[in-house]
Amino acid sequence: MISTPLQQGSNAERSRHRNRQAVLGQVHLAGAIGRAEIARALALTTQTVSNIIAELSDDGMLIEKGRLSAGRGQPAIQYALKPEGGYALGVEVRPDAVFAALLDLTGRAVTTERVALARTDPDIVLDHVTAVYAHALDQVPRARGRMLGAGIVMPGPFGLTGIAGMGTDLTGWQEVDAAALFSKAIELPVVLSNDANAAAMAERITGAAQEMNSYAYLYFGAGLGLGLIHGGQLVRGAYGNAGEIGHIPVPGPHAKLEDAVSRQSVQRHLLAAELDVHDIDALDQLFEQKNAALMTWLDTACDALGHAVAIVENLFDPQTVVLGGAMPNGILEHFVANTPLPDLSVSNRPHAPHPRLIQGASGRMTATLGAAALILNRALTAPLSHAH
Amino acid sequence: MISTPLQQGSNAERSRHRNRQAVLGQVHLAGAIGRAEIARALALTTQTVSNIIAELSDDGMLIEKGRLSAGRGQPAIQYALKPEGGYALGVEVRPDAVFAALLDLTGRAVTTERVALARTDPDIVLDHVTAVYAHALDQVPRARGRMLGAGIVMPGPFGLTGIAGMGTDLTGWQEVDAAALFSKAIELPVVLSNDANAAAMAERITGAAQEMNSYAYLYFGAGLGLGLIHGGQLVRGAYGNAGEIGHIPVPGPHAKLEDAVSRQSVQRHLLAAELDVHDIDALDQLFEQKNAALMTWLDTACDALGHAVAIVENLFDPQTVVLGGAMPNGILEHFVANTPLPDLSVSNRPHAPHPRLIQGASGRMTATLGAAALILNRALTAPLSHAH
DNA sequence: TGGATTAACTCAATTCAATTGAATTATCAA
DNA sequence: TTGATAATTCAATTGAATTGAGTTAATCCA
Fold it and tell me: What average pLDDT does range A280-297 have in this prediction?
């Protein structure tokens, strides 16, 4: 589970690979863009970008979008990502179900699926994931042969740690190389991640943080998770377990953060008021009804969330903090509007270019889509070089 | 103050630059190493590495160290960094003084200096820094023309933030482009950073974390700071203010972390016991005497530090946490030995390859040396590419 | 002791992917 | 209509890597 990131030298082939990624990234960022502009952004010559664009068009990853006239000079031919140019599979393995989504190159979900899971042994899970993948390819035959890879979300933390066995992790997966197993089963490059990290990446590909390179993401899952993006890449930590913010002790009535802010927390709180709430829709209904028990929970949760924001801001100094996850949209909105933003923070600046707290994606599929986004990000982002 | 990291494409020249960095990095890491081994580590051909080594030797950055026989085959000629091959200036600007150090390519300090500072206006500071630099070059004439750059540490946070004006930041610097001013004054590439981030990098270049790519560093300065290294690079945050861990509220008797763990904290505590302690040596003496007031402070401080470790471990999942800064060595040792390591942490793993908490550099010059290390790291580390 | 084996190293030729420079095209502005 | 501007293309060049065929210096083993 230790990721030993290969320190690699560069040669012509690897340079071209990097430049292709960077060009795709610029196209993705701009939506539609001309070659000369890409060349300026990447400090390459227009000739080079022309060659790369021709190659990418040949590969079916780009389409022409006509010319855009901007003042004097010949109008630039605009290029955009061709949605059918590549696909990423996103899979989320939960204790009771497997979720899957197939995203096209632009990040749009072309098919999604959920299958129930009776047991979580590796064999069973691998079978289901393989089946789900096969089914997705049947649904979208044009994706065959154009798969970029699969992002797979599993409940963290990975490996044996002090917060394992807290109920969220899967039995039977503690000591196996999950990425290798999946990769062998579905014959695709696989990126493994926890829910929060994946969801964080989704915001960069399709969501609220597309123009941002450094941001933090607070994810409502069973617990509370954190995803960190720095320099356009996920900060995964040495063993892939970065972002376990839920287990941090906080001042206040609760022992740790996710006792105050999480789906489990609200369920427990509502149960004490004799309300047995199991899914997002039921929660949404209570929220629409302004249910008193829910409202008191929200108050404490907002305070605790403010605390989480304080920690994250002071530790990472992000451009913004995105709030998302498996919660009703209305409740996310409520959090964004009512979480007290700490004064004592490096992010409390007078002319901040971004709001300190913004709303991200919501709903059941958030992490599943994020899983696929991990793959898309790899295709669309070149690791940035420190300019000198 | 916003760092917009340039997304750059690659070409032959930039590839070579990257490969030179990577080769130097391998040599630095190994101490002495042969070309074929470097080639394997970087996935380059031996011929390429041969060419680069020849170039670097011509440039005076490497020296031959004889042959090392290792089993069969022709013994490899070993290469090592040539100390005189390059120099980095480290400068720390404090409210009352400017510290400077000149490090050679291997990270050894060849000259250090301290000059008192009456005022901290940019003009005054720039004059002093320029003078200190000139003096360093006089002391070490061979460094002339071989300067790689200057790392400059100033009290953070940079820019206008919610924790500005807390007494640590410098007056007159809030709204200037400090890096540009320094760079113009001393005519060197400049990297700006706060004390904790710089000190963190020092551990990677010369200290306790040379083989690590992902670790956290807790720094005792006036307050308590955090430095994060991920993938061999500093996590600076969007505005360069990442790591302000001291301002985080913690459970316990103190409002925020650095009320319990910092130089100011211990000074305040000792003052209540009628002990006026101003420098590290005096503190060390008290520690040697097992002074009762100091010991009670240490007890609370250890608990608070354990809390900081819990946060850092769960948020970053680092290989280790390094403890260092402007404290007597004995006290750092005490902290490393007595800080309670939280059970509820992703770093609490059964077969951890590294201790969870280790001791880093201590003493007054820690951040100054770290400042120079920022420059050396740039020369010795190529940004890592995610292998595919 | 001496040949086989192994691995590091060198030289020359080749290849890849960038840059350079000159020419062409399409639009805007006067 | 004409000149300026900027995007684009084509052909030649360059820089830095790889490839492939030797050469050298050590260990292993008969």
Answer: 96
